[in-house]
Amino acid sequence: MDQAYWHGIAEALTFPTLAIIDGRKVPARSGGTFTSVNPATGRAIAEVAACEAADVDDAVAAARRAFEAGVWRNQAPTARKKVLLRLVELMRAELPQLAALESVDMGKLVRDAHGNDIANAIDILQWHAEEADKLYDEVSPLPPGNLAVVRRVPLGVVGAVVPWNFPLNMAIWKCAPALVAGNSVVLKPAEQSPFTALRFGELALEAGVPAGVLNVVPGFGETAGQALGRHMDIDCLAFTGSTSVGKLFLRYSGESNMKQVWLECGGKSPVLVFPDCGNLELAADQVASGIFYNQGQVCSAASRLYVHASLKQRFIDLLVARAERYRPGDPLDPSSGLGAMVDANHASNVMRFVELGRRSAQLVTGGEAATVGGAGSFIEPTIFSDVSPDAAIAREEIFGPVLSVMTFEDESEAIRLANDSIYGLAASIWTDDLSRAHRVSEQVTAGVVAINVVDPVNPAVPFGGFKQSGSGRDLSRHAVEKYTALRSTWIRYRH
Ligand code: NAP
Ligand code: MG
C-alpha cells in the first residue's frame, strides 16, 4: 500500500454529503451547504448539507417516533447485537475507503487512519455490539416479602456532538453504547470532518438499524450543535470537544429541559520521567508519539513533559532525534511523518502559541509552519525547553505538535506540577520503582494514569477526565451507564 495506491483510493471516493434523517438521505431544509476542504491541498472536496434547527427538529422527531414505537429498544438484545455486528462487517469491508475519507477530510496520515484510528473505531463498535446481550440488571437486598428489580432502561433520544480530530472514533464512542442501550441517536459531526460519520449512518441503515434510530445532521456548532443542546425533546447530550463549548452545553441544558450532559473536553496531559526510569529510549519514543501523533490534535496529548533535572539534556537529545521522524508530508503517502493540521485557521492558532513560546522559552527544534508541494497547512514538530510552569504554552491546550519541557527536583514537586492545571484527562509516569509508581499514580488527578506507557486506549478501559476535562466515561462497560437510567420496580408479596 504505497502513495500511488492511496491516491488511487482517494480519487475513486464518493463523498456522502446529505443528512440522514428518518432513514432517508436529505438535504438541509434551507438548501444550505458548506464546503469541505482538504487541508493538505487547500482544495474543496464537496458541498455538505448545512443542517440547522429545523433539520434538528426533524431528526429529533424521527428519533422520538422510533423510540416510542420500540422498533429498536424492544428487539431482543441478541437481535440488536446481530444488526450492529453486521454494521461492523460492512465497515471492515470499507476500511481503506473510510481511512482515505478521513485523511482527505481532515489531514490525518492515511497510514494512521488505516492502521489505527479507523480500525480501532470498528473494533470498539464490535466490542460494544457484543455487549448488547451481556448486560445484567440487579436485584436489591431487601427483607423477605420484598423484591426490588433494578433495571437499566434507555433514556430515549440521545444527542451526540463530536469533534474533528478522530471523527469516526468520537462518533462511535458515543453512538455505540447509546444504541446498545436501546436509545435513538442524533449525531452531529464537526463541520471540518463530516464524511465518515455520514458513511457510518448510511451503513447503519444498510445493516438493518431501523429508520430514525440513528440520524446524522452535519452542520455548524452555533446552529445545529446549539439546536441539539437546547432541544426540549432530547434526554441526554453527549459531547466531545473543547472545554469552552462544553461549558455552553451545560448552559444550554439549564436553559432548556435539564437534559443530562456528559462532557469529554480538553486536556494538558503531563508526563513525569523519574531518574529510576528503566528505559529512556522507550520513554522518548512514547513521548514523541504522544505529542506528535495526529499532529498533536489529541485531547490526551502528552503536551507537558516534566523530566528529573539530572536527565534534562539527555532526554531532550533523545526527543530531538525522534522529532526528525515526524516530518510533514503528503498524508496519503505512508512514508510521511506528520499530516496536515485540520484547517488553516487552527494552524494559525497553533502558530500563535509557537510565537508565544519563542518569546518565553527556548526553542529546541521545529517552530515553523510548512507546506507540502507548495500547499496545505502543516506545522513542524516543535519542542520548547526551559518553559516556565506559568507560561501560556505550559498551561493552555495548544492542540498542535508542540511540546513544553520542564524539570523537577523531587517527587513531591513532580506531583505538584502535574496537578497544576485546570485539566485532568490523562497522565503518564515513567519509573521502575513499583512503590513510586503506585504512590505517584494515586496522587495525580487524571482519569487515565499510565505507568511506563503514554496514552494507551482500549475498549475495555474507561476513558475520561477529572476537573475541566469533563465528566462521565467513554469506552468499557461503564459507557452504557451514561445512556441509561435505573428503574426500580418494587414488588411486595405475601411471605
Ligand atoms: P469544538 O470547537 O469544541 O467543537 C466540538 C463540537 O462542538 C463540534 O461538532 C462543533 O461544531 C460543536 N460546537 C462548536 N461550537 C458550538 C456551539 N456554540 N454550540 C454547540 N456546539 C458547538 O472542538 P474541536 O475544535 O472540534 O475539537 C478539539 C477539542 O476537542 C479539544 O479541546 C480537545 O481536547 C477536545 N477533545 C476531547 C476529547 C476527550 O475525550 N476528552 C477527545 C477529542 C477531542 P463545529 O465543528 O461545526 O464548530
Ligand atoms: Mg470547530
What does the model show?
The protein is of the alpha/beta class. It contains 15 helices and 23 strands. It has helices spanning 3-11, 53-69, 77-93, 95-106, 110-131, 167-180, 195-207, 221-229, 243-254, 280-292, 312-323, 344-360, 392-395, 411-419, 434-443, and strands at 19-21, 24-26, 33-38, 43-49, 138-139, 146-154, 157-161, 184-188, 214-216, 236-240, 260-264, 270-273, 304-308, 362-365, 369-372, 375-379, 382-385, 402-408, 423-424, 426-430, 448-451, 466-467, 484-492. The strands form 7 sheets. A 7-stranded mixed beta sheet has the order 14-17-18-13-12-20-21, sandwiched between helices. It has a 5-stranded parallel beta sheet with strand order 9-8-7-10-11, sandwiched between helices. It binds NADP nicotinamide-adenine-dinucleotide phosphate (NAP) and magnesium ion (MG). The site of NADP nicotinamide-adenine-dinucleotide phosphate (NAP) has 32 residues, from α8 and α9.
